[in-house]
Amino acid sequence: MASTISFSTANVQLIRVGNDHSYVGLRPISPQSCVSFVRRAKANSSMVIRASNEQETSVKTSGRTIEECEAAAVAGNFPDPPPLYRPSGPEGTPLVKPLLLPRRPRRNRKSPALRASFQETNLSPANLVLPLFIHEGEEDVPIGAMPGCFRLGWRHGLLDEVYKAQDVGVKSFVLFPKIPDALKSQTGDEAFNDNGLVPRAIRLLKDKYPDIAIYTDVALDPYSSDGHDGIVREDGVIMNDETVHQLCKQAVSQARAGADVVSPSDMMDGRVGAIRAALDAEGFHDVSIMSYTAKYASAFYGPFREALDSNPRFGDKKTYQMDPANYREALVEAETDEVEGADILLVKPALPYLDIVRLLRDNSSLPIAAYQVSGEYASIKASAVFKMIDEEKAMMESLLCIRRAGANIILSYFARQAAGVLCGMRFK
């Protein structure tokens, strides 16, 4: 032990003496006990003591003082290291000659510290955009097909949800309105009512939370009595140019209310360029356009349409949304949107179309967004209810995979829950 150890004989706690892990409780120690204590310490290999209000101190007792050990080290007389311990395999493990491998990738995965050091993809709350459903009512109404999601009352429930999301770092939100049937029409004129549900909600949010980013949906389906994203001709054809005219008025109305990013999800040809021109003509040069560039005619949208009561009254949306079988066509849409002035390119859905996310990432310098849609969300939620998967792990893995594929931002109903996990909190 050390040549001198100073401590009060009136207040010493002995934590452990020797290799037998024997413990002695806290008690006053007399000078005679101190002598006995030191003798016992010399007879053992190590001891740990704690004086009052001091940190635990380990003292190695090799029979030499610290000065003697230092002198031996200077002279090159180092103590023998402990023997190398190699854990053995279970009984029956074959004895084999080690493989001559120049590289063993598992070396970089062997500990949590190393795995964290070499992680290629990171996910943070800043990457997440939370979609919110709003309606005219005062109460929040649960959505049956989307556990944990609600049609939020725009005056109170919306503000409360945004407050909770901000608390875990989510600063971006996209609004989807449930419009009363009485306000729907075949031409969707309610979409550009400056005092409509969405403009009112935007103004309220900007007044309460000026630092958040508000994305809006530009499409006619929530406002159409036909449930389609565009005006329907009498023969069932979705009219392109006439629809674009309505979308421009909708985008300008949203920008006038304070939207940061307008997001045409309709998939009409030429709508990005027309909306950019309309925004600029009204002085909204700083309002961004997130184009739903590769929006596929997917079966994963079902719960969303229930939430907004926006199912098409007839037919489907395959004449304007993309065929799930098509890959290269996404490049045509991306190149067109980029030339027309889009600021962000979005892929929808996300998980079934990670190859498209990567395709756009590799072929465009614009930010890439991906929408983890209602069917993806509901699938994870339902599987977790039946104990088929771990909800939290599946949620975080799915979002990380979307990031890995190349998405800068992810629109996800999991946004607040996932951000809570990233912050070390539990979702409530």
UniProtKB/TrEMBL annotation:
- Family matches, as InterPro entries: ALAD, ALAD_AS, Aldolase_TIM
Which PROSITE patterns does this UniProt record tie to the protein?
Answer: D_ALA_DEHYDRATASE
One Pfam match, given by its short name, reads ALAD
Q: What is its EC number?
A: 4.2.1.24
Q: Which UniProt keywords apply?
A: Allosteric enzyme, Chlorophyll biosynthesis, Chloroplast, Heme biosynthesis, Lyase, Magnesium, Metal-binding, Plastid, Porphyrin biosynthesis, Transit peptide
Q: According to its record, what are the GO cellular component terms? A: chloroplast; cytosol
What residue ranges carry the coiled-coil annotation?
Answer: none
Q: Which domain of life is it from?
A: Eukaryota
SUPFAM superfamilies attached here?
A: Aldolase
Top-level EC class? lyase
Pathway the protein takes part in = Porphyrin-containing compound metabolism; protoporphyrin-IX biosynthesis; coproporphyrinogen-III from 5-aminolevulinate: step 1/4
Q: Which Gene3D superfamilies match?
A: Aldolase class I
Reply yes or no: does the keyword Plastid apply: yes
Q: Which reaction does it catalyse?
A: 2 5-aminolevulinate = porphobilinogen + 2 H2O + H(+)
| Keyword flag Plastid | yes
Any one GO MF annotation of this record: zinc ion binding
Q: Where is it localised? A: Plastid, Chloroplast
The cofactor(s) it depends on are: Mg(2+)
A GO BP entry = protoporphyrinogen IX biosynthetic process
What role is this protein assigned? Catalyzes an early step in the biosynthesis of tetrapyrroles. Binds two molecules of 5-aminolevulinate per subunit, each at a distinct site, and catalyzes their condensation to form porphobilinogen.
Give the quaternary structure: Homooctamer.
Question: Its family?
Answer: Belongs to the ALAD family.
Q: What is this protein called?
A: Delta-aminolevulinic acid dehydratase
Organism of origin is: Ananas comosus
Q: Which gene encodes it?
A: LOC109714380
